[in-house]
Amino acid sequence: MNAITALLERTRLTPWDVLDILIVSLLIYECLKIIRGTRAMQLVFGMVVLLVLVYVTQTFPLQTVGWLIRSVLVYLPFAAIVLFQADIRRALAHLGRAPVFRILGRTQRATEAIEEVATAAEILAKDRVGAIIVFEREIGLRNYIENGIPVDATVSYDLLTTIFQPKTLLHDGAVIISEDRVAAAACFLPLAVGTHLDRVLGARHRAAIGVTEETDAIAVIVSEERGEIALARHGKIERPLTAPDLRRQLFRLLLQRQSDDTARAVEVDA
Q: What percent of the chain has pLDDT over 70?
C-alpha cells in the first residue's frame, strides 16, 4: 500500500499529461484505422513479435538471438518504407483530409472548384449539353447525395463535362458538390411547381429552383435547348449568364461569407 501511495505521489497527473495521453491515443487509433485490412497490418504484427523477442532476450541469456534481432531492427525502418510506400502515401493523404487541414485549405479549394465549374459550364453551353451542378452550403444535401451515384472526386471540368455527356449513364440528374469535392452524380432533385415559373424552363431549371427553395444551396444550370447558363438561389433563377458572370456570382456567393468571417476575426484580434 505504501508503495502504491508513493508511486501516485511521485507521478501526479496534470492537465497537460491528460492532453498528452489523449493525443497519443487518438494518433494510435487513427493509425490502426488506416492500416486495418492492408499489408501494413502484417508489419505491425511482425514488430510486436520482435518487441516480444527483445524482451525475452533481455530476460534470458540468449545472446545470439539478441544480436540477430538488434541487427534486424537497424534496417527495419528502411525496409518498411520501401515495402509499404503505397500505404504510407495513403496514410499521409488521409491525414491531409483531416478536418483541421480541410479548414485551413478551404479557400484555395473553393476557388479552384469555382473555376472548374465555370469552365465546365462554358464548354457545355457551347456544345449545347444540358447540366445541373449544385453547391452544398450550410444546409446539408445528404438525402439527395445518397439517392445518386457516389463519386467523391476532385472538382475538374474534365470530370463534369464527361459526366453530362448524353451517352454516359450518369448524365441524367444533378452533380452535387460538397466540401469542394464532387460528392455524387445522377442525383434526383425535387421539382418546383407553380404558376409563377416561366413556361420555357425545363426539368433541370425546375429541379434547380426546387432544391434552392428547400435549402440554401446554389445551382448552376446549362440549357441544352438554348445553350445558355443560369444560376438558381433562394428559389429564384438568373439567366442568361456568361462564364465570367457565373464566375463572379459564385465567388461572391460562396466565398463572401468566408471572407466576412475572416475580416471579423481580424477585427476582434485587433
A: 73
Span 77-86, average pLDDT? 69
For residues 31 and 221, the model is more confident at: 221
Q: In whole angstroms, give the CA distance from residue 66 to residue 53.
A: 8
109 near 187, Cβ under 8 Å? no
What is the rounded CA–CA span in Å between residue 55 and residue 48? Answer: 11
Domains of the chain as residue ranges with CATH: 2-99 (no CATH), 105-269 (3.40.1700.10)
Burial group, residue 241, by CB count within 10 angstroms (0-12, 13-18, 19+):
buried
> Which among 177, 173, 180 has a CA at the least distance from the CA of 134?
177
d(CA 31, CA 48): 15
Phi, psi (5° rounding) for residue 35? -90, -5
For residues 140, 144, 150, 151, the Cα torsion angle rounded to the nearest 10 degrees is: -60
pTM of the predicted structure, to 2 decimals: 0.60
Cα 213 from Cα 118, distance rounded (Å): 23
Contact 229, 128 (CB under 8 A): no
pLDDT averaged over every residue in the chain: 79
CB neighbours (10 Å) of residue 238? 13
**H/E element, 35:** helix 15-35
Q: pLDDT (tens digit, 9 = 90+) per residue, 2-45? A: 555 565 555 677 788 788 888 888 887 777 776 665 656 666 77
